[in-house]
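My current task is to audit a protein record that another person submitted. What it holds is a sequence and that sequence's fold in token form. Thanks in advance; the entry in question is below.
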Amino acid sequence: MNSRRSFLKLAGGLVVAFHIPFDAAAADQPPIAKGAATATPEVNAWVVVKPDDSIVIRIARSEMGQGTLTGLAQLVAEELDADWSKVTTEYPSPGQNLARKRVWGSFSTGGSRGVRESHDYVRKGGAIARTMLVQAAADAWQVPASECVAANSIITHTPSGRSISYGKVADAAARLTPPTEVALKDPKDWKLAGKRLARLDTVDKTTGAQIYGMDISMPGMLNAAIKDCPVFGGTVKSFDAAEIAKRPGIKKVFKLGDSAVVVVADTWWRAKSALDALPIEWDKGPNAKLSQQDIKATLRAALDAPEAVVGNANGDAKAAIKASARKIEAVYSFPWLNHATMETMNATAIWTPERCEVWTPTQNGEAALAATAEAAGLPAAKCDVYKMHLGGGFGRRGATHDWVSQVVKIAREMPGTPVKLIWSREEDMLHGRYHPITQCKLTAGLDAKGNVTGLHMRIAGQSILASLGSTLKDGKDPVVFQGLNAPGPEASIGYSFPHLLVDHAMRNPPVPAGFWRGVNLNQNTIYLECFLDEIAHATRQDPLALRRKLMAEHPKHLAVLNAVAEKAGWGKPAPKGVYRGLAQTMGFGSYVAACAEVSVDRKTGKVKILRIIAATDPGYAVNPQQIEAQVEGSFVYGLSAALYGECTLKDGQMEQQNFDTYQMMKLDEMPKVESIIMPSGGFWGGVGEPTIAVAAPAVLNAIFAATGKRVRDLPLKNHNLLKKA
């Protein structure tokens, strides 16, 4: 078994290379998590089998509604040959992962990587545990292990027919040396993986038994509310706590760092109400007069800047365009967006000079641990983080853990006392890590027959990696070019152009950018797919036919596009008043396409998205039911952004502070979604993020078909579709 895999994990300030040892538990191993039972020995790091035959599968990745917990459990249980009805799960802690030489691998859950980056070693964890259980039974019977088979948590000695359950041999199995080589099942032989199994977390969520970070309660716990300067780059000038300090339940009022004020009280509402009443004078700093129009003007100028970093190129696009018979040009733009998770940022911490512990929803337990250790002033070995299920993540709870740093610093003011910090919705909206703002100028050269001879895409705008303080090689942020790269495993362009240039003029305003679900694949797919639609209509070509012509060398892209076109009946008349639009892309390891059907009210101009057909090729489908749910959920998120999503800057701060000004899609606006899951095998792609990218451009192309109006900047709420372009 190739169990030693080289990884490099950047978790805040924590950089660790790791391997996956799959070692059996030693008698002196520390507990798995706070309060976790440790009397039952583990078979290996991934599997605990109890005497009653119940099975605990440990999941290192985070569950935030996307189903990763169930999918990974299916993969482990498949190789374990477990009885699915007896399977439960638990999170190991990042502190234990560090103490055990990162036996569970990466704790990062983002970029649709939960399954696609850990499938190999979690499956091996299940296979090794099964092998050890079978060997333990064979040893007890004094027969060769080759004569024994496992199925549904039962081991059977084939010649004699004797059988025994996993729970009866788990203790003996835990004492064995793990094998160094195991064979994994061919996916065609899967019995649990690949099946439409119910999610393991559904019942607790339905009954209300599921505990989230905001639900945590501890004896003697205090509650904290925080207010940071609403202007980016601003600081606290002064505040007068004299009056609110006299209020019932108020324990402490103090400045946190240079830019925030905290109130600690016996209840969160008392803390928040006191903070709202606290007179604070802000030093608004250098960005106090910065506006949305300033940013837009900067990006517009960058579209024609002489210097830009190249992300993808072949041939000489500028020369080809210059020599072309015809030129088409358009400028598109995409706004800042907030993650707007239903559960705002929160954490609970206990700090002493000897140890610091944090309970929080996080997409990256190791990054949360690094933030905890730094804020606590303690070595990571003296800290730990206990992950909770997330009430939404979407990237906000992954790369940065500002709220974790805050709660630890607050807890240091009250040593030995548990303190829970909850951000208000306003704080959450004003201090996000926003989807980057960009503009894109697309220029195509055409020959006399309408064929594309050259394409230049100039992107102007933010770099997420630069905003996070990451080092850029040669000034290039590869994340900027998602969906526009040369063919590869991540996010490749699905078309072949004789001459192509995709470049980026980086402009970073003082608004922090972050990974927002789907990241830059979202706007890049809009830019390219809508512009191709423009070319098709300008040259009187069918949009599907044009794409097919350009996709001849990209069969997987073409397969998903053909699938949605066929199911939608593309080329056949749509019902009266119904108009269609197409889009496709490849991102996060998967190939996706969509066909949207819309109608537009001729009196009000209101768009009704009637239906979206979506095709996904993720290589392997671990749970088709979850994939369908992910596709539907991604459309809720993506279409909410397309219809309403926009964060705007005024006087250095975001104008949108709650859901009255940052609108979500309503239930009656949700289209019918028809998913086509078409795993072609041979690779592992992600789901949940890729299909976000095709929702908006498919709808925008359908709107053009309905109205003849091109919408080149979102959200749609800003446009009158009855007015001619």
